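RETRY 2/3 - previous attempt timed out on the joint model. Re-submitting the same 612-residue input unchanged.
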Amino acid sequence: MLDLVYILITLVSFAGLAALVGVIDRRLGEPADTDVAPTQNEPETEPQAVSR
Amino acid sequence: MNAVVAAVLQIVVLIAALALTVPLLGRYLAHIYTSEKHLRAEKVAYRVLRVDPDADQHWRSYALAVLGFSLVGLLFLYLLARTQQWLPLSLGFDPFPSDGAWNTAVSFVANTNWQWYSGEVAAGNLLQMAGLTVQNFVSAAVGMAVAAAFARGLARGRGQGDRQGRGRVGNFWADLVRGVVRVQLPISVVSALVLIASGTMQTLRSHQTISTLGGGEQTVTSAAAASQEVIKELGTNGGGIFNVNSAHPWENPTPFTNMLEIFLILIIPFAMAWAFGLIVRDRRQGGAILATMAVLLLGGTALLTWAELAGPGTAPQLAGGAMEGKETRFGEAASALFAAATTGTSTGAVNAMHDSLTAPGGGITLFMMMLGEVAPGGVGSGLYGMLMLAIVTVFLCGLMVGRTPEYLGKKIGRHEISLVAVYILVTPILVLVGAAVAVSFPAGPEGILNSGAHGFSEMLYAVTSAANNNGSAFGGLTSGTPFWNTLLGVLMLFGRFVPLVVVLALAGRFASTRPLPVGAGTLPTHRPLFVALLTGVTLVVVGLTYVPALALGPIVESLS
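RETRY 2/3 succeeded.
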């Protein structure tokens, strides 16, 4: 019986930690576009002035 | 030799050994955590685990991999401890009770290695070797992996040819396997051979019959100590095969092995700081972190050595220091150095009973743990702990002088500092609430040997050791009860994994953000001024958090 209790504590604790990962991920969202590092296919370039 | 001279000499020897080896190991660590090549043995491990070691994981999946791996390890260890009587090599020992098995499983998976039991009369060879020693390796490798992921998160975008991506911090399985195969195993094999050659025991026989000096015979417990001893220190684990840990002559037979064990405790935490500088492509940054760790450790060592050598009272003065509870083979200075190293890192091994340290000496060991295990801390956890404090430092400096807080070019905004705040607060909450729970329930004080301030210190030390994943025991506390096993198990579990999740989240955040160019408003984080600021912030944060609790224990005991 006690074995079940401790296994349950373990599973609930790790489920809580996994939920924490999800909560943080949702709360953080994505950084503002100006802060985001470019991806591999997206070369880092300085903003260009555009004439119309 | 004069005790003070001996104390200084051993510190100088240790510094010289570390100065020679830390840069070499640091460079090697930086290489293995940034290399894209896999060894043949590692490829076999990946096939067995059925994982892709080349996948660049988002921090979320990295964290879930860490949690999943640790959960499986915990359940396996629990099962092993509960069924050891039916397994081979059990030496006839009974199974652990449920609460004790859970405490032990959490303890070793969390790299704490708190032991409520006496290893030589409770844990058989299979449990020791297939359970506890395996966790000694892999739990340490998890800490190193998370620190490497954090360093990579900070590094991304800082150089040409980076593999950049939103929130991606590397591959947990590759980091884990490399930490074990390329770092811990080679060092452990060589060091174990050195220990065996120096007299440390290594046998599967459970008992030996020896002839005593008086001419009689005596049966003594024996074990495979050397192979466990090395990873116990190297992985900042600390769980001894014998109850008295490194004070036992089978584990730590000579002053030479004592120095080697202290060296093994410190080498990886310092080398991780050096590797950090190389991973972020600015060696000076790693140097500043390493210098701060060294300053804190040296300060703690000096104070602890002074406290033990000064040893107030007639008996200590006659003995030349406070010798009660210390191994006469090592004396006060070697015990003080070991105690500072083991509490400054999250090791928890002991070569003297910390309960027998002088009141200020015991207070210093507590304070070293309360620093958050950053001086130089556990393998991996020391580095990311100190980096969190570095971020707090640049944030505070930014507030004071109106600069935009940034660390290594990564802006410290609302989300980033919120994560750091969670990290900084989790452990003190666990320690202080844990201490409150311990003194509030009758089952808490029932376990202590002493009354008054010293008894409180015994409880405060236990919860501090557990929540900071240190694992050393003050002594004097009978912790093998359902109450203490469950309380300390909870503290160890959340003290390890909540900060770890937060670190990985921040790593992912940094990996996603573009580094700001260095400008006039950038606070240099590689100069001695920053080392002083970081040291000050670390001490002030800890001081403000824990002084009331310390006042009730070692401080009032020192003054009485």
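The longest helix of chain B spans residues 528-559. Closing ticket.
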